[in-house]
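My hope is that you will study the record closing this message with an eye to the fold:
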Amino acid sequence: MTEKEIIIAQTKKWIVDVVVGCNFCPFAAPVVKAGTIHYEVIENANAQTTLEALMNAFAFLDANEDIETMFLILPHRFSSFDEYLGLVELSDSLLADQGKEGIYQVASFHPAYIFDGSTEEDPSNYTNRSPYPMLHLLREESVSRAIDSFPGTEKIPQRNIKFARQKGIIYMRSLWESTFKA
């Protein structure tokens, strides 16, 4: 396997084992089962190349309506969570500047994700900790449809926090680490 194939395999394992397995996103399982996720590994990522890849991702999704969602995976950059948060801000600005607000949204996942007001060792951070820094592009229409069809979506974050804290840091860390054994 090439490095890109390994990174994608690890990302898929994380989605199946953590995101779907812990039911952090109740909308993910059907998309995984349907195979409508596209993965793109950005090898030489910096802010500029990542924003260019994001623009290309908008065009790709525009042209491929059968693809439900997309991950831009940044394995060799943005290891600093603060630097990554700067990239997320730039991504949100680009979304608006390109007229894609309301069409797509960008969700953020990072190996060192820490929720505001949380500590590094809080198990709830693992609800957004991925094997690599990544930007997750979602179709706004699909998100709206999912929210409308699923009662209590506003309670999902609190439910996820409760689940992760009940499982504890050792369980959540070891589940996350297992994604590297893909």
